[in-house]
Amino acid sequence: MEAIRGFFVRPDPQAQLRKCNTLIRSNIRKLDRDIASVKQVETKTKNLILQADRRGQRDPTRAKQAQKEVRGFARELVRARKTSSRLVTSRAQLNSVGMQVNEAFAVRKIEGSIRASVGIMKDVNTLIKLPELAGTMQELGMELMKAGIIEEMVGESLPEDELGIEEDELADSEVDKVLGEILKDRMDKTGKLPSVPVEPEKKAEEPEEDEAETEAMMDQMRNRLEALRS
C-alpha cells in the first residue's frame, strides 16, 4: 500500500532537502576527520625523518641505514600529502554540491519546477567514485535523482592508479623535494643528502633491530592511510 501511494504522491521537497543536507554534512564531517588523521600522519612522519637523520649523524657506522630510513619515511610523507590533497579537494567539491543543491531547491520553490544540474551531476559522480564516500554518496545521489536535480550517477570506485597515491608515482624527485624542505640545512648543492662513504663489510654481530622497527613504523603508517580509503 505504501509503495502504491508513494507512486502517486510526490515526495515533500523540504523533506528531500533536509535529507540531502544531512547526508552532505555527514560526509563533510567524515572528510574533516580523515583530513585531520592524515595531518597527524604527516607530522609524525616529519619527526621520524628528523630522528633518523640525527641517528645517522650521531653514529657514522649507521649512516647508510639512516639514509635508507630517511628516504623511506619521505616516501610515506609524499603518499600522505597526496592523500591529504585529494581529501581537501573532495571536501571542496562536496561543499559546492551542498550550495548548489540548496540553490536548486530554492529555485524550485519560486518557479515550481526544478532543472537537472550538470555541475552537481559531475561533482556527485566524481565523489561517488571515492572509497571514503562511496556508500553515503550513493544514497545522496539517489535522493538527488528523485528530486530531479541530477539525471544519472556512476557507482564504480576509482581505479587505484587514478587515486594519485600509487607507489610508482612516488618519484625520487618528489622524495628529494620533501627532504630538501625538511632537511634543508643538511642538503648538499645538488639538493641531496651527503653521500655515505662505503666501508668494508663487517661481520654482523647482532640483528638490525632498528631496521625491523623502522619497517614496522612504515607499515603502521601505510595501514593508517589505507584505512582512510576503505
UniProtKB/TrEMBL annotation:
Compositional bias segments (type: Acidic residues): 206-216
Gene3D superfamilies: 6.10.140.1230
Stretch list, region Disordered: 189-230
Residue stretches of biased makeup (Basic and acidic residues): 221-230
Annotated InterPro entries: Snf7_fam
Family matches, as Pfam families: Snf7 (PF03357)
One biological process term in Gene Ontology: vacuolar transport
Record-given protein name: Uncharacterized protein
Organism of this sequence: Thyridium curvatum
